[in-house]
Write a structure and sequence with these properties.
globular; 8 strands; Rossmann fold; 4 helices; alpha/beta; 6-stranded parallel beta sheet
Length: about 160
Amino acid sequence: MTTPIVSIVGKSNSGKTTLLEKLIPELVKRGYRVATIKHNVHGFDIDHEGKDSWRHKKAGASTTVILSASRVALIEDLDHDHSLDEIRDKYIKSADIILAEGFKGNPFPKIEVFRSELKRDLLCNKEDNLLAVASDIKLDIGVPCFDINDAQRLVDLIENKFLK
């Protein structure tokens, strides 16, 4: 069975990471193994100048693995920005569900985080595979709208749609 992916999307500073911080422990409490994928359009670096792994990459290694008894990190050169299903199929082997932050243009189901104080429109609609909205106000847009702080009901929805 293919691991399901649900994207948490929303405008900048809407609370995507905060919502994920609520959903993950609720899913874990229910016995699920959760993987997350965070997209960063600006790039990132976990490998710092002067460190051994940085020196390995600088010397020409296309892939470097950093390993301890409790963690592993992989630094790999890519030839394109991978899609969610490419990332899942290549790197995630032991999760029951994958929660992605961002990736608003993907075909997977989405939960959009909406804050009225930001005075912005929603990014997605039902045709964009919008599963639900987590908001600080009630919205009538053709998909369920949950209180932004109600992780239990959001996880109920995720669990019923993808994990049972």
